[in-house]
Amino acid sequence: MSDKKPTYYEAVGRRKTSSARVRLHVESDEAKGTMTVNNRPAEKYFPGEVFKRIYLEPFRTTNTIGRFSVTVKVEGGGLSGQLGAVSHGISRALVKVDQEKFQPILRKRGLMTRDPRAKERRKAGFAGKARAKKQSPKR
Question: How far apart are CA 76 and CA 100, in angstroms?
Answer without folding.
Answer: 32
